[in-house]
Amino acid sequence: MAIHYGFIGLGAMGYPMALNIRRKASPESTLYIYDVHSPFCEKFVAENSSYGPIKVVSSAREVADMADIIISIIPAASHVKTVYLDAKNGIIAAKSNQKRLMLECSTIDAQTARDVGNAILDASSGIYIDTPVSGGVPGALAGTLSFMIGSQEPSAGFDIHPQLEATMSLMGTPSKFFYCGKLGAGLAAKISNNYLSGTILLASAEAMAIGIKSGIDKHLLYKVIHNSTGQSFMCDHVNPVPGVVAHAPASRDYEGGFKAQMMVKDMTLGVDAAAAVGIKPSTGQAALELYKEAAVDSRCIDRDVSVVYRFLNGPE
Ligand code: NAD
Q1: pLDDT score, position 301
Q2: 6-phosphogluconate dehydrogenase NADP-binding domain: which residues (predicted)?
Q3: Which residues, 6 or more positions from 268, have their beta carbon under 8 angstroms from its beta carbon?
Q4: Is this model's pTM higher than 0.90 or not?
Q5: Alpha carbons 95 and 92: distance in angstroms, whole number
Q6: 10-residue averages of pLDDT along the chain (316 residues)
Q7: Best CATH choice for the domain 5-183 from the list 3.40.50.720, 1.25.40.20, 3.30.70.260, 3.40.50.450
Q8: What's residue 117's pLDDT?
Q9: Would you say domain 189-311 falls under CATH 1.10.1040.10?
Q10: Residue 190: active-site member
Q11: Residue nearest to atom 14 of ligand 1 (CA)
């Protein structure tokens, strides 16, 4: 029997993730899609219907009524609560189905994931797991995302749900599926990672600006860093200086990618997580203050957060 999928949130990450599901799933499976911004759904149908049936629905509840497996990736905790728990239009309002599998991929706080997952379980609405992803828009397009998984019963793969690994494999690389523990644990890992990558990105922007303003050619400076102790994923793939790394958002005027406003959310999650466990977040706190200023600057709004280099007046 064909498995039917539901996808909620067709933004920068969701669109390519849903596209990979549609392209790789059986043509007998229907993909039900929902986004509050309906033009995204219309565009998705117009561009991808050749791969198999796609139906646009008008609420998360309708997605859950139709789909066996649901993937959601939406901005923040408030959106996740609405999508899952709204008494009228949320997933919780759909017909009960204890086998329904829900992969919630947004980057939100771990406590919200525990609250939402437990409410869903109590309502016999199915199995909710936190599955934040890493790899950004390029990883979503290539279908090579990593998944960090937290579940009610801290088990793995088939023990959580027979279709879990197969579903993540439509969007990601199995060697990068990390079972982190109980509900919320995937997010705990994700928040730590983003605390690190967010601070490294800002440090990279500052370091590149310092070196270039000191008279070092931008290409030479990158080569030096790439071959020295400052080398990092962020400098190699999200290098904030235009024209240094061809595939980085900076080289296409910071279009697409991970929005500056999203970094404020993630760095806040990191700083709050630090406070909750008694770790002083000195670098994260400093980065957060700067990202907050950048996120409301007209040069930065809605651009990839590496635009912080422009905010710092780095030479372009
Ligand atoms: P985005 O703003 O591009 O997309 C979010 C989408 O969700 C939009 O299309 C929006 O209309 C839709 N949406 C908002 N509220 C909704 C609701 N109530 N119901 C249905 N749809 C709703 O954001 P994004 O960059 O795709 O990020 C989404 C999540 O993924 C965030 O939590 C982010 O931190 C995380 N994330 C992003 C990246 C990245 O590189 N962009 C990487 C990993 C994780």
Answers
A1: 93
A2: 5-154
A3: 288
A4: yes
A5: 8
A6: 96 97 97 98 98 98 98 98 98 97 98 98 97 95 98 90 97 98 98 98 98 98 98 96 97 92 97 97 98 96 96 97
A7: 3.40.50.720
A8: 97
A9: yes
A10: yes
A11: 74
The token pair at 195 is 């605390």
Question: What is the Cα 169 distance to its own chain's centre?
Answer: 16
Q: What residues are in contact with ligand 1 under a 6 Å CB criterion?
A: 8-14, 34-37, 40, 73-75, 79, 82-83, 106-107, 133, 136-137, 257-258, 262, 266
What span, in angstroms and rounded, lies between the C-alpha atoms of 125 and 22? 24
Query: For atom 1 of ligand 1, which residue has the closest CA?
Result: 11
CA dihedral of 196, 201, 203, 209, whole degrees rounded to 10: 180
Domain 5-183 identical in fold to domain 189-311: no
Backbone φ and ψ of 172, nearest 5°: -140, -175
DSSP category for residue 249: G
- Which residue out of 57, 74, 104 has the highest number of ligand 1 atoms within 8 Å of its CB and is therefore the one to mutate? 74
- Produce one character per residue of 209-240: b if its CB has 16 or more CB atoms within 10 Å, e if not: bebbeeeeebeebbeebeeeeeebebbeebbb
> Is 240 within 8 Å of 205 (Cβ atoms)?
yes
